[in-house]
Amino acid sequence: MLHRDLEVLLAARLHRAGLAKILIVSAFADSIINRTSFIDELYANACGEDALIGQCIADVAGVTFEHAPRTTGIFLRSGSDVAVLPHARIATTLNRDNNALIYIAPTIGDIADIRRGLPSSKNLVIRLRVTTPPGVRDLLRAGHQKLLADKAARMIEDAHHEYSAKTVLTGQQGVLIGVLATCFLLGAFERQHVSWNGLHIFLSLFFLACVVLRLVACKNLSGDDPPPLLEISPAELPTYTVMIALYQEADIVPQLVKAMSALNWPRSKLQVLFLCEGDDEATLNALKRLDLPPSFDIVPISECAPRTKPKALNYGLLLSKGAFVVVYDAEDRPHPDQLLEAFQSFQSADEKLGCLQAPLKIANAHESLVARMFAFEYAAHFQSFLPWLAHRGFVLPLGGSSNHFRYDCLTALGGWDPHNVTEDAELGTRLARLGYRTGMITRPTIEDAPTEVDVWYRQRTRWFKGWIQTWLVQMRQPVTLLRQLGLLRFLVYHLLAVGMIVSSLLYPFTLLFILSSAFCWLSGNGVVVVRRDILLLDLINIVMGYLSFHRLGLRAMAGTTMPGRILPWIPLYWLLMSLAAWRALRQLNRLPFLWEKTPHRPSRSIQENPGQNR
């Protein structure tokens, strides 16, 4: 095999330097099994021995080993294209004496080239430094920080500016809303009774259609037993990139690293990016204190507005070298085989399958009432409703975690919208509009729900605000949206998006109308007779809404139990959602891009192994 003599020479040098023989042999074996390089497998197998491996490589190559400088006065860039960064192995700097130094993390082929060039180039010996792969990556990122941050902030605008939420409401939309509101108010002034009753009936029928949609999904619910994994040779597996955006997450870092280390994927083909804000010293230090494998990369992000999760993910996407990309949250514990199932699903489909959503399961439902209701809601959503939407080919509102993408699809879409605070739902819509399909897999990710009402309230406000942003963006060109989705998907999308927003906003008024009508009836006031049909429709909507939500969740949780009752608390839970929706509407006007972070803490749940939480 090409350069096998150099690999043997390097192995002998490593053994003399004290690296365990079993690690060297294992690296050789894995390089054959995975069809990877011996050097890559050395770094993957001998965690914590980067400097030793780098020193031995330098000795074999005949040049100096040196740790890449963490800071440098001048970084020499060959151009402004950051596309080369994920796979680059060379970085050039100027030292304090204005001498150009070349830092390289060489392949076996590079070592052969260096050995051939040394006798005829003394200048090469002086300037060239062998260093570790993480050292080169850190140096390259440091030299491209501003370029990366700027590009991450404007990816969607460069690729598909019409889908950017940077402008919340266009002038044309503002005029249209003003005209419609004026027409309605004038009509209400002339024929108040007819106008308000007509609007009431229309909204009630719309809400009823949303309830029917959930009942249909419940009726067609199928099992979610995980498909068996086929035998896949490690040599056939591509590089998979895992991205986790972190901010003020120092306490949960050990749990997160443990969960990522448990993923069943060859270490030499796994890239894990911890995307941290550059001024978040606590999280950065917590990661640096751990003995991370070389493929686990700490990525500080330079400050650049907006400071949101989607912008951090775009930053990571620019550094991704995987054929597939998955996004996790700080508290996630994914099933170890989730990547394998996603890869198997992608391989069995055509390239128009752009994304796969794994179900999210809540482990701490027993900790509080709000956590219990959140867990029930997630079960209904991820184990019942989303699988039905995916099976029918409707627009799938993605969850913010455990989204698996084809890298080429994600870059064609323009990544995430950094100005949208519910970037996952928006991206799910954009996938459908641009002709891609979204599917579901079954191996779950375990998460923890907020246990305090105020934390839940801020998170839900952000979700509602993002949904309103998304709908306003999609409806800038409604005819184009209709043409891209088709009539049925267009209607179902509006039942989902508008139905969720409007029903949450109007829920307290519907309750107030029902209660006031009931009071009038009990007091003998005849006004209830005039509004009997509307009252009946509202009662049907409210009761069927409660029951459909409850039924959908029960079907999803078949075989498991909740630590307490659900149905009696649904009215209060929905009232809290309504308050969050109104707060989101107010915040959209004043602080449209404010990202109210959800704090996380290490799990106290007994459900630590996601493989046991099927």
UniProtKB/TrEMBL annotation:
Q: Molecular function terms in GO for this entry?
A: glycosyltransferase activity
Q: What is its main location?
A: membrane
Location relative to the cell: Membrane
Domain (Glycosyltransferase 2-like) spans 325-514
InterPro entries linked to this entry: Glyco_trans_2-like, Glycosyltr_2/OpgH_subfam, Nucleotide-diphossugar_trans
Q: Which is a Gene Ontology cellular component entry for this protein?
A: membrane
Query: Keyword annotations for this protein?
Result: Glycosyltransferase, Membrane, Transferase, Transmembrane, Transmembrane helix
Gene3D superfamilies, A to Z: Spore Coat Polysaccharide Biosynthesis Protein SpsA, Chain A (3.90.550.10)
Pfam families the UniProt entry points to: Glyco_trans_2_3
**Transmembrane annotation, as ranges:** 195-217, 490-514, 534-554, 566-585
- Write down the membrane topology: Multi-pass membrane protein
Q: What is this protein called?
A: Cellulose synthase/poly-beta-1,6-N-acetylglucosamine synthase-like glycosyltransferase
